[in-house]
């Protein structure tokens, strides 16, 4: 009788320990971090850029300064702009401000900009006609400039441990220091 109680006790302890181990492993899932510096370097590679507007003028965009909007889990980007061309008598300096969410693209292991919002496109001293044209052009400019822009590319070795644990990239969290990518279980059969 004592032997049977001892075996039941040992089995409970073992199963309880395994449950604790599973809970500990679930809490200790790996995460992957991308620093603010890495993000800024990646986005700077896309600039400077020139955008023609209706054959009348050109917009030149410089590399943006990124803002880490932790409360909204988004990144903001403010770019110095220059407007010049035959429709204008001189060059005008301005700023273009957008923000965007982030998504993971499994096909090429990239973190990309998505869900762009135009906050402002301003040029000091620009006459009303060209100013209205540029305001209307803002969303298209945002699409050309940043929609689906690659902000970071993960390497297969970055994903080796999570993949071996049956995990895949899931949620992307914006922090003051950069991004944190958490992992979730892969779908069954995936």
TrEMBL record:
What Gene3D superfamilies does this protein's entry cite? Answer: Uncharacterised protein PF07273, DUF1439
- Protein name as annotated: DUF1439 domain-containing protein
Organism equals: Polaromonas aquatica
The organism's taxonomy opens as:
Bacteria, Pseudomonadati, Pseudomonadota, Betaproteobacteria, Burkholderiales
